[in-house]
Amino acid sequence: MIAIKNVSKWYGQFQVLTDCSTQVAKGDVMVICGPSGSGKSTLIKTVNGLEPFQRGEITVDGVSVGAKGTDLPALRARIGMVFQNFELFPHLSVRENLTLGQVKVLGRGQDEANARGLKYLDRVGLLAQQDKFPNQLSGGQQQRVAIARALSMDPIAMLFDEPTSALDPEMINEVLDVMVGLAQEGMTMMVVTHEMGFARKVANRVVFMDKGHILEDCAKEEFFGAPRSERAKDFLARII
Ligand code: ADP
Ligand code: MG
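The joint structure predicted for all components is written out below.
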């Protein structure tokens, strides 16, 4: 479903991604990990066209992300993205956060958008919070709303960029539980995270990045059992 082929990217003179290649099949849950600054956020953002790249090719469901003429807003509407800092619209209620994209981007009627939004809000356990504003919710609740908002758009895949790293420890599991549920239902996911418990539980693939290179791209069992690179071994020794 997602194919990343020999992608390189520079910020000015600085090469942030070097010849990165990997693939995500339908239903795969790929965990991407690696030291801070290794290019994980940049890589995941190239997938839905939030970051341009200079070399290589990325296709999502057959659509070339980097090609001239690709309708990036249409592509982004099909891929859910959840960020570290939730990125809810602060001036809109939870319900309005859930419906805005459905109405503006997908052209759904307000009633349909409400029904779908509330269905997913219920699913993340926050139906009772629909009239609140983001700043009236905890971080864990805001992140669950962000996930519900992304799901309301009926995405073909979900991208997560360190979705729990801004959360207080007691809120991490409520977000991970939602993500585990999604994974178990077969959602195609790329997840940048250092939550190795999550990786062990539901990932089928692990990618390890360092300094803009993909150093490991293997089955979960292989990554945790016998990582090939010294850097991945060091990394695992430090975070587990
Ligand atoms: P990670 O998510 O693994 O921590 P990032 O993808 O955020 O890494 O960043 C990779 C590298 O690219 C870092 O060295 C970072 O400082 C640099 N970088 C990220 N965004 C920009 C930018 N907009 N301009 C210049 N350098 C950037
Ligand atoms: Mg990052």
